[in-house]
Amino acid sequence: MSALKVGIAGLGTVAQGVVQTLQRNANLITGRAAGDIRVTAVASRSAKPDVDLHGARFSTDIMSLVGAADVDVVVELLGGEQPALDLCRAALAAGQHVVTANKALIAHHGVELHELATQNKVSIAYEAAVAGAIPVLGAIGRGLAGNQIEWLAGIINGTSNFILSAMAGEPSGSAKQKNSLSFAEALDQAQELGYAEADPTFDVEGIDAAHKLAILTSLAFGAALNFPAVFTEGISEVTVEDIEYAAQLGYVIKHLGIARQTANGIEARVHPALVPAKNLLAQVDGVMNAVMVGADGAGPTLYYGAGAGMQPTASAVVADLVDIALQQVRQPVAAAPMAYLGIEDIVTSYYLRVPVHDRSGVFARLTTALSELGISIEAAVQREHTRSAAKTPAGEAETVPIVLLTQDVTERTMQAALTQLQALPEVAGRIRCIRVEALEA
Amino acid sequence: MSALKVGIAGLGTVAQGVVQTLQRNANLITGRAAGDIRVTAVASRSAKPDVDLHGARFSTDIMSLVGAADVDVVVELLGGEQPALDLCRAALAAGQHVVTANKALIAHHGVELHELATQNKVSIAYEAAVAGAIPVLGAIGRGLAGNQIEWLAGIINGTSNFILSAMAGEPSGSAKQKNSLSFAEALDQAQELGYAEADPTFDVEGIDAAHKLAILTSLAFGAALNFPAVFTEGISEVTVEDIEYAAQLGYVIKHLGIARQTANGIEARVHPALVPAKNLLAQVDGVMNAVMVGADGAGPTLYYGAGAGMQPTASAVVADLVDIALQQVRQPVAAAPMAYLGIEDIVTSYYLRVPVHDRSGVFARLTTALSELGISIEAAVQREHTRSAAKTPAGEAETVPIVLLTQDVTERTMQAALTQLQALPEVAGRIRCIRVEALEA
């Protein structure tokens, strides 16, 4: 067999990981790919750093990879939109395969890039773009190929999961005592450890997770990639108080990407959610990722591992290269035009934390108001004084929270109810509302 | 594309599940496989049951599938050794692909069957043979193709996991109170629910898990299939008392299949093991399966789902059929001859429960004896009176258990130590010894 010649665009940590992996495991990979996979060229806009390229040529001209006789596959590890998009377009048009870890690129331009690949009879693969080392695209696309996928729910942003784990007081290392951090403290710690960027918006506000969910949704349901249809809400308003109330109700708060095929259309949404504490997803702590997939035959399956990092991401890139070497890239089925539900049309249950003036009968008045709005209560946490509760100077009643879990209701109904509840004289502050994900098929 | 014509041998629940799946998801599967996958023939030794075969011809002559013009792939779902082995041999020799869910067949005869497939330029695939619906062979063979696999540990027998979960008092359903069953009670319950056979030996004594571990070990390390090299110990001697002591030490007892590549050879062993309670494997309850894989680049990844059942197993069979339709079966790399370690050469830590006469100084004498034998203590559970403790008629000291976790030591050293400890005058009964699996790379 002839060797597969690889040109890498970018020379950050993941690119270095790919070079190292192909070198370190060369014999194993040659056996599995039925031929050598060799990095022949590396291109990076910055000058060549002090990295051993094991004989590959180096260029600061990224586009020099396009159409080069010594490059069968372009591995795009630049990140961002441009010049990554132009590079991938040109490589595919020149009849080169493309492997990328760029979730934003695929979420925004995947439809065009897949069409280009098909036209030019080459492959585009991006296992590394979703959940790092976890071969979850392969699991859905190949392992569950006999199934209709019904839903999926995943922890697909390690930064957010690290922060929520730290806020829940998950012990890092072997220390056993719980020590909950505030959101700001947890974010600081994530930044110190290199798990969060200086500007953490992309991770913390759910945009990164939404890119990945758009890709998962498209693959799972055979729907066209549709990033704008993904509802996105971050974790910056989750408080330790909510995490503690959720625990009392038997739940853990996780930042999930959720996709579901319903009779009325596809749900695709990223937001904090209460997850049953006994569910495996609730046990996924720190920067780890996991995706649970509900399928009509297989039932629920879960895929867990490192969602980012030099070596884990390189692992997924190399898996794609082996697929290309064996001509075994699984092309997604021509994407059908499918309707996506707006967030107002989803049906779920909700966690509500309602700050109220502590007068007698307030609990009954609140649940009566909810009932009149068509919302039933599933569970409530016994009221207790908040830590910050205090008599007002005028001697008015203290403020205490009422915490409720509702039964299933549409988001539209819930949002209308929140507006009305917020205006009640008993309500003393902003109502906090978090969706619940039961994780049942 | 022409259709892939499937002949199924056997018409039990899994076979019926395959027929149903290919019918139910026909449109999806045709799209994914780039052509129809059609059951054209079914053969079963018993008379045709009242099952809708959707037009497939039926025969009671299993060997009639071999070489038939309307059968491209033989799906062997007979179970057992014969006639399954003869059928698979003949089909491969006749140039037909083979898909099987038969773990015993592959564990014992996989080397021969793979050679036959290679000689005849056809494929043999058996995703359904290991961990049911979970696409774990695909994850290792494809998703982790860039990695050196270092170890794996899995809950790969649902019956044993159901029994251990019930003994640990894991609530079935939503009931929250713990209600631990004895081994015998849990086995009864498993049999009532159809999770255990009338003769449960294969599941409970670990033989089924050992078949699966032999397959996983071979794939993960590229080693020749070697079922006799798998050390096998079942769960019939695990007690609720041990489960409770393990919990006090921060562990859960699971029945694991463990494989590890060491400098001295391959470890492959099936036995009860103490697993850290925070590890995801410890959270896998009931009949569910999960396999954790430690790889040099990806790090630890975990694959979880239903390990058995009509639809889950059919899901894996159909995934193999789609691979065959697309000519994308990943053939394992020619298996290298590798040394397997005997159980006496493994290195691990141990849980010991030593029944002793409750005299002063007995704890010190025991740890001193262990120390002289080269075994250090990592942790101990405070002694307490056993429920069954009682003064002997002669008024001798009561019997109490001393529970210890050791540091790492070879099995040879531990077995020699157990022989010596057992003979100490302070030791009042049989010492119970269970291996600990730290689940770290």
For the structure shown, list the relevant keywords.
homodimer; 441 residues; Rossmann fold; Dihydrodipicolinate Reductase, domain 2; Alpha-Beta Plaits; six-stranded parallel sheet; 13 helices; elongated
Helix content of chain A: 25-40%
Share in β-strands of chain A: 15-25%
Outline of chain A: elongated
Unreliable stretches of chain A: 173-177, 386-390
Could you give the count of β-strands of chain A? Answer: 17
Number of helices of chain A: 13
| Fold-level CATH name of the largest domain in chain A | Dihydrodipicolinate Reductase, domain 2
Q: Mean pLDDT across all residues of chain A, rounded?
A: 92
Structure write-up:
Two copies of one chain form a homodimer. Chain A is built from 13 helices and 17 strands. With 441 residues, chain A is an alpha/beta fold. Chain A has three domains: 126 residues, NAD(P)-binding Rossmann-like Domain (Rossmann fold), CATH 3.40.50; 171 residues, Dihydrodipicolinate Reductase, domain 2, CATH 3.30.360; 91 residues, Alpha-Beta Plaits. In chain A, strands 7, 8, 9, 10, 11, 12, 13, 14, 15, 16 and 17 form an eleven-stranded mixed beta sheet that branches. In chain A, strand 11 and strand 12 form a beta hairpin. The interface between A and B is large, with 58 and 59 residues. Strand 12 of chain A pairs antiparallel with strand 12 of chain B.
